Amino acid sequence: MNIVLIAIGKLKEDYLRSACGEYIKRLGRYCTFELHELDECRLGDNPSEKEIAAALKKEAEQIKRFAKGMIVPMCIEGKQLTSPELSEKMTEAGISGQSTVTFINGSSFGLDPEIKSMGSLRLSMSKMTFPHQLARVMLLEQIYRAFQIAEGGKYHK
Questions:
Q1: Which of 11, 16, 143, 155 can pair with 148 through a Cys bridge, CB separation 3.0 to 4.6 Å?
Q2: 7 — phi, psi (to 5°)?
């Protein structure tokens, strides 16, 4: 299976880069992993709705270059799944012939509606708000956990 993570913005903190690196290394046992860190459109301190929409549209054009297979946009209005449910969805994708699952983590303003509409599963981590950089670590951990669950590993308790 191929896992693609498209993330708007780069990780700034060493400890977050280290945590992501650890999960990416672990994922190497289960899949081919691609990370695409795309540039975030910079906006002023108090952007208008029109400026935000234009920035999201520009980010969407970058995202579309790398999105393939089963597309999973991460968004607040998405479905919240348990770890076993995510594992099941990923397994079902592979069984149905989707050899690639693409997760998309947008900027702090979210994702363009076009990207959300491309998703066969819109996913939300929680009703709580997390920094996007931390959410990336959490998502990578959950992808790793999903593979462990599917394998029957002891990581998931």
A1: 155
A2: -125, 130
